[in-house]
Amino acid sequence: MVPLKAQKALCELSEKTGVYKILFNTLGGNECKIKIPLQPVIPSKARDLSHSALLAFRIRGEKDVQNFNVGLEANGHIEYVGPILEYLPFSVISSWTQTGIPIREFEAKGASVSQAQFLVFDFNEPAEGVLEVKDVVSVPRKSHSEHWDPVVILLSQYDLKRVKDIKTISMGHYGQEFGWKVGQLYHHSPEKSFSSGKIDMGMLKSIPPTIVDGYAKIADFNNGLENQVGGFFNEFQKAPSKSFVTLNPTIFRGSVGRSLEIIYEKESQGFCGAWVHFFDFKKPPKERIYLDATKLQYLSFWVRGKEGKEDVSIQLADASWEKTEDSVYYGKISDYLKGGITTEWQRVLIPLKQEFYKNLHFKKLAGLTFNFREKSKGTLYVDDVAFLTSRDSSPWVSDPSAQNDRGEPEKVSKKLYKAMWLWHTVRQLKNPKAQDEFFKFCTQNGVNLIFFQLQYELQKKTDGTYGCILKYEPELRKFIARASSYQIEVQALDGFSRFALKPWHEKVYAQIRSIIEYNKRVSSSERFTGIHHDNEPYLIPSYWGVIREGVMKQYLELCEKSQALVQNSGLSNFVFGVDIPFWYEEANFDFEVPVEITWRGVRKPASFHIIDIVDNVGIMDYRTKAYGADGTIVHGRNEIYYANSAGKKVLVGIETYPLPHEIFAIFRSNQPVQLANLSQKIQLDPRQLFMFFDQYQELGIAYMRRFREDLKDTPESISKEIFKLKIQDKEVILKSEIAVDVPSSKLSFSGMNKDYFLSIYEDTQNYFMHEPSFFGMAIHYYETYRQLMEGPSS
């Protein structure tokens, strides 16, 4: 398009041959709301979008950095769904880009979509420029899909022209407010997972366990992570049933160690329990080593209850059963213990080769499952899982001399930090009472490092660079000086996903330069001791498409130059750090490294590149338990071990903000739903999700269906919908290969008692204490952390 220069205080809309041109200038603080009419089917009537899947349009702009809120005016009221940045990977650019907003997002904000009148752009930030918009179209819903959630896929961002070329797609549901988001998407078949269809069970490896005096030790739970054969443990659950698995350091068999603690609440619906693997499930199938139990005759473990009379079903899986997330039923513990479970330790001895043993391939055993099938609640403790060659094999008791208990390391002489994010900083700067309460809380709870959200204003210069003015400087100086008097360090905090992109870099550099200048003109007690960035580039729309590597290279460039500005500032004891997720280097569902980048000629996980560049990182290790397959320790150790070798520092971060319940799912194009006995299949596994695709021009549309209580769903009602779509409408319906509920209680300590929070905090800190790179914990964030600590103890 031909560049046009907007005049001062402009807010104009014009239309010519279906193209809407917007001129805006809000640099003077003036408001600018642009309303693009939605053409109704009947003139003078509002546009009814209640039967539409999404509102699509094409947009381009004069400048590469544009941001404004997008909304819908309906029945005279405007409801905004969020900034345009949520719907375009790079915001508005100079070439035409098509995007779409699901109608359900307008509905979720309260818009009367049956009375839609205008698509609204609110330029609520100081800016100027010219935009053009065309092809504003409401895309109709597919038939029989009123209970299915449409999700927009920007096909060009995944190097796709046709939605039907998608081979694998992951989807995440992030609560009612955010809904479904597209995750990783491939138009090639997986290579390393079972889904490749290239891995036969005969290819899988196994070895017999070490047998001493007829006893093969499997799991004593004393190490906290992998057991004696390399397997992990964890819970499984489906709401409303729930279970929680951890290690108990005070209840165990023998003179030392831990036991596996299973807290369960089985309702009439859903399922719950715990599993113990005999192999490392984090490895691809061809690299796994399963357990060869052909010479073993008995399964042995010890059990006790918190109250007594607890019971649970025992199930065993081989590699084939484990692949389907199922196992073979061996009966209940009460079938093997006369008198059932009591509050004392008792040994459970189960013959392996019973009448149904032909259902198991003992050469490749995979795991033990504790499955609570009947409605009940309670707490079980399990210890010393083993296999025996005969019934007379001597019971195994944990040997204190053989412990590898990382939970009680030798004392290490180093300063540990307890960091805390503080986002709402204006209140602390302007309200003396709030500030008093803040510092009282910090001193009472040992907080000695604050990530302080910087308040600033950017001003663009004629040469395209930016100047940055720190706001509330007198109050800021007093705040930091007061923190210093309590031996609390303060680091300047800021964060925005788009800062990763090069057009935004100059804004970040201007901010860093202003902090350096501030530090040089104030006394030592009033200085920031560092800068901490919470930029999360993976939140950029379509991040998991073709833009991922390019985005991350831009982000690494930002980190590198930011680090250089700090390092060359001439300031002593002044550092630069960033937050990173724990999963950059953890193998995904297809055993691929999710974010692996070539930088400076070296290809490795992005997290390792970042650690190489900056002084320190904070791992967003958002889990609510320390041990097991999905705890803070296993998710944080890779970064900490790498930082050891790189000579850098790591904080382990935990969450107290109330996050939504999440759902994670994987779909494969070669796994369509089978109609035979469909309602029974849904009844057996209500976690199943369903999807089908549609396409409008360059936009893919994924229609998602999940089991919803608000719709009073039943297996029969969902089956009927799928029958209509498949038989009448000829849609190809996919079923989820993987569907995992991620309850908020797995991610955040919100709503939990402070004693439990402190126990997980201490377990994590104690485990990593002796690692050279580990220098403390970080808690997100002040207000919710305070609410937790002022709540009930237990």
Overall description:
This protein has 794 residues and is α+β, with helices and mostly antiparallel strands. It folds into 4 domains: 11-141, Sandwich (Jelly Rolls); 145-189 and 667-742, no CATH class; 214-393, Galactose-binding lectin (Jelly Rolls); 417-659 and 745-789, Alpha-Beta Barrel (TIM Barrel). It contains 15 helices and 41 strands. It has an 8-stranded parallel barrel, surrounded by 6 helices. A 7-stranded antiparallel sheet has the order 10-39-38-40-37-11-12. Strands 14, 16, 17, 20, 23 and 25 form a 6-stranded antiparallel sheet that branches. Helix 10 links the parallel strand 35 and strand 36. The longest helix is centred in the middle third of the chain and has 20 residues, at 502-521. The radius of gyration is 29 Å and the shape is globular. Mean pLDDT is 92; it is low at 1-7 and 400-407.
Per CATH, which architecture of the largest domain? Alpha-Beta Barrel
* Strand arrangement, major sheet: 26-27-30-31-32-35-36-41
What's the CATH H-level superfamily name of the largest domain?
Glycosidases
Specify the helix fraction band: 10-25%
Key structural traits:
794 residues, alpha+beta, Jelly Rolls, 15 helices, 20% helix, globular, disordered N terminus
Short description:
With 794 residues, the protein is of the alpha+beta class. The chain has 4 domains: 11-141, Jelly Rolls (Sandwich), CATH 2.60.120; 145-189 and 667-742, no CATH class; 214-393, Sandwich (Jelly Rolls), CATH 2.60.120.430; 417-659 and 745-789, TIM Barrel. It is built from 15 helices and 41 strands.
